[in-house]
Specification:
Layout lengths: L3 H15 L2 H9 L3 H18 L36 H37 L1 H15 L3 H12 L8 H31 L3 H8 L4 H37 L11 H8 L8 H28 L5
Helix pairs in contact: 2-11, 3-4, 3-11, 4-5, 4-7, 4-9, 4-10, 4-11, 5-7, 6-7, 7-9, 8-9, 9-10, 9-11, 10-11
Subcellular location: Cell membrane
Main location: membrane
Organism: Amycolatopsis xylanica
Amino acid sequence: MTDPSAASLQLDAGPQRSRSLWGDAWRRLRTRPTVIASAVIIVVIVLIAIAPGLFSSRDAGFSDLTLANQGPSADAWFGYDNQGQDVYARAIYGTRASLLVGVFATLLTVLIGSFIGILAGYYGQFVDTLLSRLGDVFAGLPFLLGAIVILTTFNVPGSSPGGFTIISQVVLSIAVLTWPVAMRIMRGATLVAKQLDYVKAARGLGASTPRVIFRHLLPNTLAPVLVYATIALGAAIGAEATLAYLGIGVRAPVISWGVMISDARDYFRNTPHILLFPAAFVTVTVLAFVMLGDAVRDALDPKGR
């Protein structure tokens, strides 16, 4: 006969064995106020980017010079800029360009860095040395200097590239200068994962390199890279605003938070509201992604489980 106490122990142990890293992380994350707050902010920002018309009754092109430089009011929550444009409406419609730059720059950064990092960690020896030194070269480039060189090389003085073109250039510039961080994270995770018994067994049984990498290594190395990607997305949005402020990033007629900040810099003393509100959008969005990334990193930390 089966001992009831033993059966009870088996039933109790079953759920414990079935708990995964991501399941534990989700249980930790869903009860943290900072995670809930940052997630709500991110969802709202995404909704604004997808359907800005739902959040503003005015179009981004609205302009009335008789209203120029008026402060916040019930008619215009964020006031008007020096061209009589509604700052709130422009901030709402500028969300899409800023978020697109952040998302695609982060995606490209993670793809490039992860691909190079997993190759370096898997093959080791000469391949690892070569790719690591390549990453060191790019990591040693100052971000602003590198971005200025890349973007001014693409665009000669006086040129006026289209919106899609300049956004693509900014995305490429950010990715080219930031991928080494993702590469180092993926390389370190791969060096640990390839020592696992089932990875060694797969290699010993003659599994092809793509199968080992995509079937066995990649699922066990994604967590730290995804955490980095969450934080990097916020940093990329901040980088877009920085480059636009310097006049080498996204520019008119494209509307972004960085473009709005750049347009307002000469009028800050007399009309600070035209700079403070788009800057607040950047600050809150970047903070939300950084807070979420920090929380996910803590939740996935094995030492905290």
